[in-house]
Amino acid sequence: QFQLVESGGGSVEPGRSLRLSCVASAYLNSVSCMGWFRQAPEKEREVVATIDKEGTTAYADSVKGRFTISQDNAKNTLYLEMNSLKVEDTATYYCAAGYRVVALGTCAYKYWGQGTQVTVSS
C-alpha cells in the first residue's frame, strides 16, 4: 500500500512563503508521477503542480513562477515550495501519486494524502 502524509500547511500573510512536504511509505520511483492538488471551499479540486519519474514538471498558470515542485528520492518525499502567497491560494492541499496512462498521455492518480490546510490572509 502506497501511503502519503502531507505536512507544512499553516496560516500566513499574503506575500509570505510555505513549504509543503509529502512523505511516501514507499520509494517514489515505484510510481510514474506525483502531484499537488488543492481544493478551496465550494470549488472543484484543481491541479497545482506535477512531476514525473523523469523529473519533468508542470504548473497551473495561477502558480507559475511562484510555486516549485520537487522530490527527494532518498527521503521518499515530495515538496511544494510556495512563495509570494496570495489570498486566492487558500485551500486544502493534497499530495497524490499514480501511474502514467500511455494511451492518454496523462497520469492516473491512485494514491492520495489526507490534505493539509493553507490559509493566506491579512
How is this structure best described in words?
- With 122 residues, the chain is mainly beta.
- It is 0% helix and 54% strand.
- The chain has strands at 4-7, 10-12, 18-24, 33-39, 46-52, 57-59, 67-72, 77-82, 91-101, 106-112, 116-120.
- Strands 2, 4, 5, 6, 9, 10 and 11 form a 7-stranded mixed β-sheet that branches.
- A hairpin with a 4-residue loop joins strand 5 (46-52) and strand 6 (57-59).
- The chain is globular, with a radius of gyration of 14 Å.
- It starts with a strand and ends with a strand.
- The model has no long low-confidence stretch (mean pLDDT 95).
Task: Write a concise synopsis of the structure shown.
The protein is mainly β and 122 residues long. The chain has strands spanning 4-7, 10-12, 18-24, 33-39, 46-52, 57-59, 67-72, 77-82, 91-101, 106-112, 116-120. The strands form two sheets. Strands 2, 4, 5, 6, 9, 10 and 11 form a seven-stranded mixed beta sheet that branches. A four-stranded antiparallel beta sheet has the order 1-3-8-7, with no helix packed on it.
Q: Helices and strands in order, then pairings?
A:
Layout: E1 4-7, E2 10-12, E3 18-24, E4 33-39, E5 46-52, E6 57-59, E7 67-72, E8 77-82, E9 91-101, E10 106-112, E11 116-120
